[in-house]
Write a structure and sequence with these properties.
10 strands; mainly beta; Immunoglobulin-like; 1 helix
Length: about 150
């Protein structure tokens, strides 16, 4: 099949333009947020702990360990508490020993979730606090806490 020179040029220009629209028109991938963590704990051996999360420099929420009733307003001891204070689309997730989970995922801020259950007095456990959204998570240091 023979194509006229003018038609070939027009076809080539159309293909080039379509390719540029695809290449240039794609939105940029969103960058991961800057997540930072600060912590403070029971100076007498981690009977309580507070981890504060910041997303892009703004306070997003907290994760708490309440070893005894009354710590962080908890009516029970051996409790992890996730609190989301920012309406930013991210959630806060606190995990104890990889299995006990308190999460604000899927809830509008402000929102608090707690998970508790009796643990042997004086036993040591690992608590991890993360900022979550969909499959994304950014976690801080694993903190050692005491029941």
């Amino acid at each position: 099949m023979k194509i006229k020179t003018g038609t070939a040029r027009a076809l080539a220009a159309s293909v080039f333009t379509a390719g540029m629209l695809v290449a240039v028109g794609a939105p940029p991938a969103s960058a991961a947020p800057s997540v930072t963590f600060t912590s403070r704990a029971d100076p007498l051996d981690m009977g309580w702990a507070e981890i504060v999360m910041y997303i892009n420099g703004k306070r997003a929420g907290t994760g708490h360990w309440a070893g005894d009733p009354g710590d962080w307003g908890s009516s029970t001891g051996d409790t992890i508490i996730a609190h989301d204070s920012a309406s930013d689309g991210y959630g806060i997730q606190v995990t104890l020993d990889g299995s006990r989970v308190a999460t604000t995922r899927g809830h509008n801020a402000p929102y608090t979730d707690r998970a508790s259950g009796n643990l042997p007095e004086g036993s040591r456990h690992d608590m991890e606090v993360c900022v979550v959204k969909g499959s994304y998570s950014a976690c801080g240091t694993v903190y050692g806490v005491k029941a």
